[in-house]
Amino acid sequence: MAQRILKLVQGEELRRSKSDKLIANYIERNLAEIPFETARSIATRLELSPMTVGRYLRRMGFDGLDQLKHELRRGSSNPAWQVKGPVDRFREDIREGKLLAGLIQQQIDNLGRIYELTAAPEWQQTIDALVSASEVYVAAYQNVRGIAQYFASQLSYTRPRVQFVDGLNGTYSELLDGSVEGRVLFLHDVRRFAAKARPLAMEARRMGVKVVLLTDEFCPWGPEVSDICLVVPGSHGPLWDGSATIVAVMDLMLSNIIVLLGDEVGERVDLLTRLQNTFGDFES
């Protein structure tokens, strides 16, 4: 399915005008993202009208973007963390600085959307949950596992009883045994979603654990399985699904928590620094 669409937009018939070329290049370079776009969002990105995008789609043989999405979803699992198409086509853009400039601008735009997130009620609810929890358990999978481990490690400098859980014991019993009240599960998952994430969130809530889910705009089940659902912009990069936006969100959370806890954080960092010096973890 995807190959047929690529062949269409690469043909001369659909690349006659300037707007044709803009839309064709966008579809070609962002094919994996099209199922999550609208005609208006594409038009906005390309500074065209939605009607122009609609006419182009009809020339492709589709009665609107929904029909194109349906065909793409039938033909692809749309995995995340993939190289999106032949890399050769980006080499000229790299040499001219266009590709990197575009990626930087995307990060700037996403940071603007993150600022809006920090003003949402869910943001303060998340901060309050992470500060007041008796214990915080952090979980994530596959490619985003390392990012979540980083967050758990940094959070442990601000407060005690923070643990990353990998589920290798097959039970998550350290989180789900019900022995301690006031636990919080901070679950991080983004497209392509891990098979264990949703059942873990559901079981945690069943056991009385508060679930905070940090996910992206592609998640269809987040609010259903979490007490607090924080949604960040998904990756729309032309080449690779990066993690800069998620890391920025986590760093802002940590900064917010440090300010809120004040001197408590300083005392904890002093304690950890003394222990690090005792066991010789760092050069003097």
Automatic annotation (TrEMBL):
Gene3D superfamilies reported for this sequence: Glucose-6-phosphate isomerase like protein, domain 1, Winged helix-like DNA-binding domain superfamily/Winged helix DNA-binding domain
Keyword DNA-binding appears in the UniProt entry: yes
Record domain HTH rpiR-type: where: 3-79
One example of a Gene Ontology biological process annotation: carbohydrate derivative metabolic process
Superkingdom of this protein's organism: Bacteria
Keywords: DNA-binding, Plasmid
Repeat in keyword set: no
GO molecular function terms listed in the Swiss-Prot or TrEMBL record: carbohydrate derivative binding; DNA binding; DNA-binding transcription factor activity
InterPro entries, per the entry: Homeodomain-like_sf (IPR009057), HTH_RpiR (IPR000281), RpiR-like (IPR047640), SIS_dom_sf (IPR046348), WH-like_DNA-bd_sf (IPR036388)
PROSITE patterns attached to this UniProt entry: HTH_RPIR (PS51071)
Name of the protein: RpiR family transcriptional regulator
Organism of derivation: Aminobacter aminovorans
